[in-house]
Amino acid sequence: MDTIPIGRIAGFAVRINWSVLVILWLFTWSLASTLPGAAPGYPQTAYWVAGICGALILLGSLLAHELTHAVLARRAGVTVSDVTLWLFGGVTRLGGDAKTPKEAFRIAVSGPLTSLAIAVVFGVTGYGLGALGAAPILVGVASWLAGINLMLGLFNLLPGAPLDGGRVLRAYLWRRYGDPVRAGVGAARVGRVLAFVLIALGLGEFLAGATVGGVWLVFLGWFIFAASREEEAQVRTQHAFDTVRVADVMTAHPHTAPGDITVEEFIARYLLGDRHSAYPVTDRDGSVIGLISLSVLRRIAPGRRTATLVREAAMPLSAVTTTTPDESVTALLQRLAAKSEHRALVVDSVGSGGVVGIVTASDLTRLIEVYQLAGAGQLG
Ligand SMILES: [Zn+2]
């Protein structure tokens, strides 16, 4: 997207896409052409100035909607990449998923509730201004802002991705099924049905003679259809990661280091000229007794390297995370998240019980990055 950063609000990077100019113009035009009906008798320029002001305040309302999503996401521990305003309003890009359906629900529903609250504020303001005998053009702008925000709040609650209602539905299904993947697929399907309904309504309006409104509905339906399909594909990709086993990412038959050599010798003979940063340490009979890694070695003073044996420096087997080739990688990641050493020894689950592989930080970092890429979400 061609977006321009406009700075940070409440700590979030806010960006604007050039297509905002289209809605700015549409809103200005729409307000400037309805105002003369509500508040007649002003010069034409007054309507246009009021139109521009109203449209800018509306953009501010859209921003407030998005920032509410962003604040609640941050509170739930979800990273917010940025907030962008564009043709269809705003998008808050998240770096992951909420941990519980309750948090997901709050993040999603907060935006439409903000729009509805803003609608109430402008409704009351318009009513108050009218009662106080303020200029009718001001009352007209306030009522218009109340109406549009009310529509935006309700429209965003429609249950289809990427609308907030789609997220709300997903959170509800997540709580009901206890499975975010199944909930995501379910919500995406409902989104597709909604898209077809909008397209059908649009075609109906078009045939009945309401050309602009009809085309707009078809366009919107098509947009929701595409987004729902993308959403379902994304959920399925993420689901695919749940089926990745440790065996698929581990380094099989890792180089081992004997426990009875000195650290000095280990560095010279094994570490230098090898790409591995962690080695299972073996006893004389070949059984694995621990793990030695760069992070462990860093804790040994250079002067003590000739006096320390690898078996003394190594992490004992009892302190090392172990896994089996058929454990799911996501399950291992969750177990490792709490540990300081982000690697695990892979122990044969059926045969000898010997070490058959090692999962290192670099294997996992790559996987985590791919995982985050597939799991990144967006909110409207
Ligand atoms: Zn929203």
Automatic annotation (TrEMBL):
PROSITE patterns: CBS. The keyword Repeat applies. The active site is at 66. Binds 1 zinc ion per subunit. It comes from the Bacteria. Residues 250-308, 314-375 form the CBS domain. Pfam families: CBS, Peptidase_M50. Its main location: membrane. SUPFAM superfamilies: CBS-domain pair. The chain crosses the membrane at residues 12-33, 45-65, 107-129, 135-159, 180-200, 206-227. It is found in: Cell membrane. One of its GO terms (biological process) is proteolysis. SMART domains: CBS (SM00116). GO terms for molecular function: metal ion binding; metallopeptidase activity. Its cofactor is Zn(2+). It is a multi-pass membrane protein. One of its GO terms (cellular component) is plasma membrane. The keyword Cell division does not apply. Zn(2+) binds at residues 65, 69, 164. Keywords: CBS domain, Cell membrane, Hydrolase, Membrane, Metal-binding, Metalloprotease, Protease, Repeat, Transmembrane, Transmembrane helix, Zinc. Belongs to the peptidase M50B family. This is Zinc metalloprotease. It comes from Mycolicibacterium fluoranthenivorans.
